[in-house]
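Notebook B, p. 112. Complex prediction, attempt 2.
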Amino acid sequence: MKKRFLAGWCISMLAPFVLSAQSSPPPIINATLTGSVVDSKTGNQLEGATVHIKGTTHEVITDGKGHFSFRTGQKLPFTLEVNYIGYQPLEITVNESPVQLKLQESQSQLNEVVIVGYGSQRKSDITGAVASVSKNLLSQPTASFDNLLQGTVPGVAVTQSSGQPGGTATIRVRGGNSISFGNDPLYVIDGFIVYNNNAYANTGASNGAGVNALSTINPSDIESIEILKDASATAIYGSRGANGVVIITTRRGKKGSNEVNYSTYVGRQSVRKKLGLLNASQWATLVNDINKSDGKPASYSDSAIAALGVGSDWQNAPLKNATIQNHELSFSGGDDKSRYLISGNYFNQGGNVVNTGFKRYAARINYERNISERLKVSTNIFGSQSNEDKLYGSPYNSINFNGAYSNLLQTSPVAKIYNADGSYNTTSPFSSTPTNPLLDIIATTNESNLTRVLGSISGEYKITNDLVLKITGGADLLNVKQNYYAPSTTGSPAGSSSGYAASGYASVGTSNAVTWINENTLTYDHQFNHKHFVTVLAGYTTQFQKDESAVASAQKFPNDLTSFNNLNYASTAVLSSSDGHRSTINSFLGRINYSFNHKYNITLSERADGSSRLGANNRWGFFPSVGLSWNISQEDFFVPASRIISNLKLRLSAGRTGNSEVPPYSSLAALTPTNYYFGGALVTGIAPLQLANPDLKWETTTQYNAGADIGLFRNRVNISADVYYKKTSDLLLNVPFPLYTGYSSVLENVGSVSNKGVEFSISSDNIKNKQLTWRTTALFAANQNKILNIGPDTRYYYPVAPTGQVSPVIVQVGLPVGTFWGYSTNGLLTAEDISKGAPMLNGVSQQVGDRKYVDYDKNGVINTADKHNLGSAQPKFTYGLTNSISYKNFDLSFFFQGSYGNKIFNLLQQKLEIPTLSLNASSTLLDRYSATNPNGKLPKATNSPVPQVTDRYIESGSYLKLKNLSLGYTFSKGIIQAIHAKQLRLYVSAQNLITWTKYSGYDPEVNFYEGDNTKQGIDYGIYPSTRTFLAGLNISF
Amino acid sequence: MKPLLFITAAALIAGACNKLTENPSSVIVSSQFYKTPADAVAAVNAVYSTLNSDPAGDFVIYGRNLNLLTGNGSDDQVFSPSNTNPDVRALGTATYVASNDRVKKNWQQHYYGISRANVAIDQISKMTIDTTLRNRLVREAKFIRALLYFNIVRFWGDAPLVLHDPTSVDADKAKIARSPKDSVYAQIVSDLTDATHLPASYGGADLGRATSGAAHALLAKVYVTRQWWQQAQNELLLVLTAGTYSGATGTYGYALYDNYLDAFQKPTKNGKEHVFSVQFESNLGAKNSTQSLSSTNFSSFNPAVYPGDIPADHLYELFDSTDTRRAVTFFTTLYNAATGQTVNFGAPRFAKFIDYSLSPLTNQAQSGINFPVIRYADLLLLYAEVQNELSGGPTPDAYKAINRVRNRAHVPDLTAGLGQQAFREAVFLERRKEFIQEGMRWFDLVRRGGTVLVDALHALPAKSAASAKDTLFPIPQAEIDLNPALTQNKGWEQ
């Protein structure tokens, strides 16, 4: 078994072995060919095997005795192809009839090679938890490959932040280990380590949802994705392995052919759902009710209300149907010495909200050449340019609420959208500035242009036949330019004021992040006596990372003509800013894989990482692991059971991995600049930002994993199950510090978090014959996250809440990270409650028809002590179900994906249920308590009551989505030969077709705070999600 | 082989270059700083900046958060419908609890400023720079430290007395108990006494720094609060302009503006009436301004939109229509230049911190109005109060001082011949009218002792929940949770 790097493409090539053509006897014509198919070991006759004469349409299936017979006018000899589930395919040239064809049982897919860290391994020898994304799910249309991980691998939870094209997703492998920093998995793209940091894609010039740096990568270039989950697999990535590793291999050229492939799809997207809001007359009635509560006269007479009618539908105003299209052209091929792939991609996803969308142009060159018998050089170079137009929002990572779409929802339906002449009406009496929220969305520029080049060059030198030196050098260059312009006619954010107040506000930002990597590995691979298989890996790697950014802004423009392009036209400059960081990681790594006869396998690995980001006293961390596996089905005693259980393997592993994703300079006594004015002029002040912590060290995750891989009925059914326990200790945590010291928190290694869970996957070839195949794959994963400790004196703390808000979440020992914390409610207060002296909420007037809160601690008063655990954003389990059916030339697949038990804080709904005199509200307020509606569910209308975090707004986020449904047709050889094509497939597909959920917001997949670990599952008004119908074509020549 | 050797060499060189030591280029580290005179100046600038900025981007002490305690916590203001933050609303309804976020934020912001002052004082004292500059800078930092501790000791009573930066991230070492109020006051007096050696004035580029006059004035306020009337008088006489009152020796040139409005407007900032002001300018950011005191919301010219603070009932009615302070402190109608219409708001709204230099007027996010911490009018009224207390009744100078403040506002002289108690009441009523929204009212109610605060709050139906415990704010619950050595104020225990 040769150890090859990045050899994923050849997986499919390894299984069949081709008999070389023998010197053929003189041809004879035979009208019939008969024979039988048997197991090469046992001689058992195999029923249901397909026998196919190569190059013809002749194909038969063996009968109950394994027999087959052809009637054919072909001349002998000819080549037969024999396929049978659980056996290696056979291609054989026959010269006579009858023949006996002997099939070798495939050692399940055990002979498959799986890409692991710094190499590949026979699947049979693997000791860790490694899973692959199935091929057919890889081809789902998507802007960014991280979306492909959703529901396709057990234990990987993916949540889209919003429906914004090019937006971010939160990806967690086996739950989140860290409370404060870095829970994203590590990506290894063609051997190049990429820790995705979306902050590099945000300079601060732009605002709104984050930009997904992974969307720069073209998903159609991807050949395979493997997920390394347990310590045995990930510890080789040491300090960056704790959150799992996603190994991505891109497509390569294949030896012996030149192929041109074009694939495309074009589709139409529409908004999946709209929220119920009040119309103009309903809103006017609400305003009158508020006035009534305040003892004030009604604002609208009955006739005025009737005249208002439905009013303006602001929610609908910016929505449109949008197109999505993707074009990919690739050339690939190779000869004995070289392999190449050249690809180009254009992707364009329009937004369902006007003035938004995502575009990408990408190109790739993968090339490798054997310079000599011993030396091979290869390169993978990828470049892309992408452009994202976003909705404006609050500044990136800001805690404030100020989103374009939510502003729109809250605009009074009484205000007119357009004037009679069709221009935008900007004179709403209900908005604080003469602006129009629809115009804000249309006129505001908020774009991010990303350029990424990721390239590596490597040389592999066989020092001896067993010993290979590999040296790789590579760079990942990510350049971002962001442009923002809030015209003077808009209320869009402009620094801390609005475009209107600032008389036009422009901001441009650029950021440049570069990662250099050099990796040097020696691999020794040898087998002794055909029984002992040993692979030893040793290496030294170093990675240097540098990021620089600058933002310049200006305001007070004479007009809006130059937009962001010329800040010199502005009369007021805003203080510019720039920033830069450097960090280094040096590592030594080693691994020993030993397998006895592919029966007993052991993997030992160790990585030592030194990171510049950590304290001077604790820079180096050591991350060992051990993994064991036993292929029980290879044992002689197991043979009787092998008719049913064709494969059984047990795996056990333990190890340590780390996390050091704190920002650079976190351990230093850094000072921060501030501003003050003397004599009307700006002066700079410099003061401590944080206390030095020279002992700052790695977050360490210790993980135990036990798993089993089971193949049934000649591996027609494959089951994989894992249980794991992870404990992350020495958490990098901003620990609350006495405020009177002047520091609110210090960064320390304190506390621990555990994750434990089970993962289960089953795939089954339900039907497999010539006409019809049906394959089902089901996944299930449950993870329990628990905070064990957050410091000696701290039992809980509240993460920073949006200004003006009370934190809806708590970080508390014993609860999962991301637990919602608030009051329980129990309907509305009745006259009887009040006469009985029902407990009242502090600080809010309480009358009949007001919200009734549950006195959780039963002390007779409702105060913050009555807040309690209202559930967590973390799902109890996630699942996925894929069915692929092919019948003759048709193929059909449907893919369900779901999540159960997670809660969502519907902050948008909370905001929409506040009755005010100026903002629109949810249609749920129609069912408010009033004299005429004494059984109303919502409190009576009062002016701007204080919103509370209550169980009403902590909603179930469970959902099941029909994520993908596609139907394809592959043209028969005869037709496509006419156009000289090798393959042609047409398909139609629907994305996000149906969602079953009780969640009342736009989409249960929501993360307003994106990757913020403690604020998951908060819906503060996001870009609405979409449903897509598309048609596509793949053709290759 | 050759390319291989080349790659190997390149790799080894690349590897060898990557050191793990951090040499940040975008961040200054403490060990690199506190060396030059410019460093020392910057360290002290940072102390001042805690008065008008917040590291987390929250509202600032002077301009918003202080007023939530002194305004919303007093009988000057009630909650506004736009106070959707339950913690803000609770302050306006006297129903706040020890975990109130705004109380905690005030605590945090005050100590944040003290921390920066501590660092500046300790670091600059060690520096070998020009002695005059060094002494001045240390004294400026001490002035700010005293100002902040003075607020702290009045809000919370006994308080942790922190005078040095923590040396490590070990929280245990930072856990200290509250120092008695007297010790805190002793430190305040000590810092201010040192600060009285500050320069009497600064050149234009340093206008706004603490002066010796400000130090004497603040010291006088401290002594008045402690009811050390004689010491208070001594300090006041040092700043009251020589010749205006018997024994006054002040050479600072302090005086009242003829026009009350000028005390709050941008073109007249840092003038003769301003003893110490927190400096604001446009473009610092919407939260880093005094605009929140009038609130951006008025700019909609929509009476249905409420600003963050609204006056308590009858506050407006305290004023005679001839009192020029009424039209400066409130508006009931406002001219909208954009539409040419005058909008009637019905109920009075606060107007003192509207920056009328802005065009359009709605652009209050650009407000550049200073927050006056000590105005000369304050010193005059304190002097009237001190004279009344020292002499068992109002002296001619006491009448002269209070009438100076009244006359400037076109209010006639106070009725002559009042007894001590009646004069005392007159002084406090005058203080209330003069200093609305200037961070005084709660302090003035509490320092009179007894049930004055609670009685005043009970006069408002919305604050019927007030009780004796409200004469001190609760120590933030989170601080007690973190450090059990901190005790809670009476009545606030959870």
